[in-house]
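Input for the complex:
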Amino acid sequence: MSSTLDKLETGIKGFDGLTLGGLPRGRTTLVAGTPGSGKTIFAVQFLAEGARRGEPGVYVTFEERPDDIARNVSTLGWDISSWQEQGLWRVVDASFRGEDAGIVVGSFDLDALIGRIEHAIDQVGAVRVAIDSLGAVFSRLGQRHEDLRLQLGQVAERLRRLGVTTVITAERRDDSAGVIDRHQMEEFVADNVVILRHTLDDERRRRTVEVLKFRGSHHQEGQYPFVIVPDQGIRVVPLHTLDLTQPTSDARVTSGIAELDRMCGGGFFRDSVILLSGATGTGKTLVASHFVASEEEGRALYLSFEESREQLFRNAASWGFDFAAREAEGRLRVMSLYPEAMSLQNHALRIDEALEEFQPDRLVVDSLSALERGGSRRTFREFVIGLTSLVKHREVTSLFTNSTPTLGGGTSVTEAHISTLTDSIILLRYVEMYGAMRRAITVLKMRGSTHDRSIREFTVDDKGVHVGRVFTNLSGVLEGRPTATESAMVEQMESRFEPLAFGPDLGDGELPR
Amino acid sequence: MAELILYVAGGSARAQRAESQVRAIIDAAGSNVRLEVVDVRADPARAEEAGILATPTLVRTDGPPSRRVIGDLADRDRVLAFLGFEGVRA
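Predicted:
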């Protein structure tokens, strides 16, 4: 096997990352999929992105008429006729023009087709070629698949010698494993195979792309979700396959709450993902707001899936944070979105774009659980993996909030999925004690650091959050059903004057209120 | 007057076979057939215009409808019949 082949960047967003550089240069890649899976869009986009970069292309169409193609892709924002005028686009129209009936008598070769393609390549100095589609060739020239396979193999060979990078689309009957394309052309035509799939997953459309093989060169394995976006075409959702182990950096950032930093052993790690989980009203948004306002330097991006921007600003103001001023100074951006507004894949893309554009140091997603219903369990998990990889790749300290299903606690779907993916987990819980509702905070997990394992009381006043005394002699706090041990009452009185584990500035024996 | 265009790829054996078959057809049909031979290698623009994919391709253009036969025309009678040269036996 040769060393890594030179690759041609396609320009299709996300695809070049997936293929580690693009398509193998000077070779043919078969793009196979069931009807409606996006093959033609892929082929046209391959040429369109080329044209945008000044790389001329030739489009050989066996199925659709050139006018129909031009019309269909104009909705994606591509103006083929202008590229044609600039000599960046040539069409070889091998579609059925309905003009004459024909039969096959005797043996033939595809020299005429090859000649026409070569001619077009010559005319514009093409770098890219797209042939759409293989299935249509068979239906046009029908008989004797063996012959046709050999002939098409010759076409591919010719294109190779011309040094152009080619995409050929092919139809699959269904997505069963083992059959790449209906006519089993792959060995004859292409060293490289990409599969596009289009399935229904829990009533939602799920499109994926997979690089099945690249002969002689490396690529990412597995199926990756993509979307087809108006004005852009195919966008592969970025899922960097980072190894989610220890944070790579020891650098810490503040949570905005000094006591919480101490509980975490010094603050959050800069490139970590923190899950903040609790029932509604326990103070997640407040903690998130502290985090947003934690530094004077740097920028924070707040993605709100539960409250409107106005609500958020109002609440923040009541806690003493001036978000409006921060926003005006460019230190804060708030995006308020309905979870149902788009698919999870599209949400992932939007978030990626916002991160790219705004370049924040800190990110809040409030809440992740609001997005749970946006897809099947698998899709949601994929989304969370993708999002986590995305932010770590960009080294953005990220706080994701999660609403637990019951007021007392309990495990939510989000928690079940992502507790292994996050670096830190902070829990907020209601605690019913002596006839009043109180709140508890605890750091359940802090990967890569020692941390305070106690459960502490969490209070809120007009200056924001305060973390105070440890809830001693109680069990079941996390489930929201604290049970005082026998002598707890007495010990409570006694322990009021005990110094606390983390220094005298934490709590000072005030009467519990 | 019958109009035939034979599209071939250079001087390949297949092309030669097809050409000799066509000439035999013309002889049998008498002088009422005009034949043009186009080499798609030399003139790809013509091939593009006519939408030719495979070679050899024989097209009868004095329609309607125009008719085409793809291949080296091994079965002469079948070709004759399809192209509408009834009653002519080669």
